[in-house]
Structure formats: C-alpha cells, structure tokens
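Appendix C reproduces, verbatim, an entry submitted by the partner laboratory led by Prof. M.T., so that reviewers can inspect both the input and the predicted structure.
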Amino acid sequence: MVNIQNLIDDAKCFETVRALRWSDGIFCPHCGSARLIKRGFDDTQPDRQRYRCHGCARDFDDLTGTVLAGHHQPLRVWILCLYFMGLNLSNRQIAQELGLNKDDAQHMTTHLRQGLVAQQEPAGLDGVVECDEVYIVAGHKGHPTAVKKKDEQDDATDSKAVEDGAP
C-alpha cells in the first residue's frame, strides 16, 4: 500500500503557501509593514521561512496569522486533510488515510472549516426579493403513495360529512 503523505513534499507545500499568501509581496501580519528581513528557516520545519519586521520588531513566518499556524502536524498533513475534505471524505476516512487519531482528524476538519467560514463575506440580499409559500408534508419524504392515500382518506371523510349534513 502506498502512503500518500510520502508523495507530497514539504518544500512544495511551503512554496505554494508563500506564492499564494505573499502574491502582492511579503508584509508583516502584525503591523502591515513591508520593511523586513529574512531570518532563516524554522528548526523543526526546515522549509518554513522566518522573517523579522523592522516596523514592529516582531518575528513571523509563512504561516503566522493563518488557520494553519500553531499546530504540531506538518503542513503537508493539513494540506492533505483539506484535499480529502474537498473529496467529501468523512472524518473517520480522513483519519485512516492520514494515520491520525479520529479525534485529531475531527479537530483538524473543524478548524479548517471555521477558517474557511471566517474568510467568507456575509451574504446579503439586494434589489427585489420574492418568496413563495411551500407545502411540505412532514414525515412522508420519499413516500408519495402515503401522502396520496392520506389525501384520498381526507376527501372521503369530507364527502361523508357533506352527505350527513355536517358543515
């Protein structure tokens, strides 16, 4: 069996994150200054670039201020988790594919979903909005014959009541 994590390169993951995040140039996520210097790479993740801001004198790296920051799992695991979520795999399947505990997979998927929702702008309505009523029969979804029989019984009861002189 092939372990999919071995097919993904950490260097490529960080390179992609840098290209997407810093497409308009690198700036400090704390103060927004573009005056910074590169300070080498992270000790635990050698492809993770570190920076120091001259504006606020704070350190940051490629993941600072993102939903991927501050976690013990490598970036490639987070990227694969996001990929599997896009394939609509369950948390149990994701845990199995990534060799994780099911609780860790649950935490990761919840965290990623919250990060995606936080990035979305709230939906708003504009212009003329129309709405029509909807007739829903609760409890009979997928069973149209049950609804039809109930309607026939109601019609029969109504016609009997008319014959008996009831209003």
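Strands lie at 36-41, 49-53, 59-61. Additional entries are available on request from the coordinating office.
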